[in-house]
Structure formats: structure tokens, C-alpha cells
Amino acid sequence: MPLPPSRRPTKTRNNGGRSEVIQTLEADEFNQALAQNSGLTARSTQALQSVGVLRTWTDGQVLLSRGQPTSAAWLVVSGRVRISVITREGEEQLLRWMLPGEIAGLSSVFAQANNPADMVSHGVTQVLHIERARLIELIGRDPVVALDLLRILGLRINQLFDTLADQGMHSLELRVWATLERIAKFNSTVVPDGVMLRVSQSDLAQASSASRQRVNQQLRHFQEQGLIRLGYRNIVLLRKDPLR
Prior knowledge:
Helix content is 40%, strand content 26%. The strands form two sheets. Strands 1, 2, 3, 4, 5 and 6 form a six-stranded antiparallel sheet that branches. A four-stranded antiparallel sheet has the order 7-8-10-9. It is globular and about 55 Å long.
């Protein structure tokens, strides 16, 4: 039975002033990243910048480990943060990538609970750390920021259910395609002939709970069907009628 794919993936301390690094960000580029990655609004981002501390992490550094207590939320300014857990079988399970404009750690900060996953920087990564006390004070006086953070938490809960549903699929074909669609919602860029996912086949295999070899075979099958185009560390979900 042919696969019925969906074609609808979505497109130093800062004491009241913006840090030099954040000042150099192009506003249009930053706002575009926010829209693409289901991140915070520009207004909320600016408010958080006023109460956060910017830190830089080198490639492969562990920002936070699973089970570690935390008192700060994390707003990615540049680079990427890999979110994963280790299964009972000792294998890494990729949950998602945190991209510029996205915030992590809200559930742990609000619930005063331990961090639920490992967070590792990919490349040189800049992260704005917002301590719990300063975050609580901000949302207490700014209901717009509070509502935006609730929206982000709601999206994360929905994504969690999507992930659980994808992992329950027995067919590798369906599981890989569902994972591609899930990644497209949170980590993609619109291109003339479709939507580009910035993901390697190794990461996709981990997210699909399958071996890289089997996932590679499935991806090539999708490509032969005209559903995707494979590139270097990226995959394009093709639309039926490319933009002219």
C-alpha cells in the first residue's frame, strides 16, 4: 500500500541593556528563525534579554545532564543544542534540536524539578540563561510574556505526544515518514521545491529508533518515489508543485 504523505509541514550580565553579541544580530534574520522554529515572539525575546546572562559554549559541551537540578531556563541565541536521553539499552535517543529563538528548561524551572534530558552544544553556541527568580518576576509584571511561555509549553506537550505516537508505529516506513514530518514542524526552512530539514541521517535514525543503514535504505526509497531529495546533512520534503 503506497505511503500517504502529508504535504503540510509548516513553514556577560545584561543589566537592562542588550549584550554586544545580541546587538549584532540582524533583526530580520532573528525574527525569521523565530517564525521557522516555533520560538518565542520578538517581544518576549527582548524582555528575556533584559533579565538573562549570555554564555558561550564550545562544540560538544554538556550544558546540562539528565537528572541534574536546574534553576535557569535557556534561550538559544546562536548555534544549536542537542536534546537527547539514554535508553535502557544504553543507546542515545534524539528528542529534538533547540535552534536560535527557542527556549528550554521551562518545565523544570516552574516545577522546580530536575532536568529531564541531556543538553549538548553543537558547534559554538550562545545561550541566554534566565534564573528562575528573575523569570518569575518578569512574567509576574508582563502577562504577554507569560502567555507566550504558556504557548511554548503547550507546543512542547503536543510534540511529546507526537513523538510517543511515532515511536509506537511498527512499520519503519511510517515511522521514518512521521519523524520527518515532526522534524519539519520545528526544524525546517522553506525552499523553492519544498521544505528543507536540517538533520543528518544518523540523527534521523536515532529519532526513528532504527539503525542508520535501515533508515538510509528507506530514505532512498522515498527519494525514488519523488517524495524527498537527499542532501549533505539535510533532507528536502518535496511538494507536488514547486514554487516558480
